[in-house]
Amino acid sequence: MNLDSVPIWGLFLGTIVIVLAAIDVGYRLGKFIHRRSEEEKESPVSGVAGAAVGLLAFLLAFTFSIVTERFDHRKELVRDEANAVRTAYHRADFLPDADRAEARRLLREYLDARIGLAQSGHLDPSHVREVLSAATRTQDELWAMAVANARKDMNSDVAALYIESLNEVADVHALRVAIGVQTRIPVAIWAALYTLTILAMLIVGYHAGIAGSRRSPTGALLAIAFALVIGMIADLDRPDGFIKVTQQPLIDLRDAITPASQSDPGSARDGN
Predict the structure, then answer these.
(1) Nearest CA to 246 among 108, 85, 75, 125?
(2) In a 3-state reduction of DSSP, which class is residue 258?
């Protein structure tokens, strides 16, 4: 379970509303207490407000570090997958002529599917499952072809090298699926983050009310600031967010291994 069904703009606007509402409720409560009793002092509340905001900042930094580390890992896996597919493509030279052509065709189709999935806009779950199933079938075909040729010479080191490269392609693919598609910030962390945000903003508003000050327009700026940070965390957590992992290593590889007869004629004329 995750928050992928909620659009980024929805989280952004929702966070602004939540922060402003919490500050306002806290302010009204503080003004009410301030009018009814003089025993509640500003100094202790100020310390509590500082501690709450500091704890919120720590949780935001912790969550942000999780998504940025995973984002960097996703970029690294794109390079690893490009290297693995390139190695498998070159080692396909070890196969007989007919199988060699078929293996290279399957690897090019595999690249096209992986690039298309990563570059698509909203990742519909059914489309993701369809593409991943197709990638698995391609890997199975390549594996069956490699095994059939390896059985002709069980002691062939050349066949072992090609099979090793296919294993690497499958391993990197599994990691990309696990880290890029399946892994998300747990809902428990989102719940803790928003709960702490509400509590901290209640205390901030309460502190302003106890102090007897007027409502400050800086509350809106504070709400926007928190909304920007939370929105960026949510965006980095999603593979289809505004901040995307570049697929350029895979694109460069696809362009390098695509036969000239299959390349785009317009691109050739343009010199690209």
Answers:
(1) 75
(2) coil
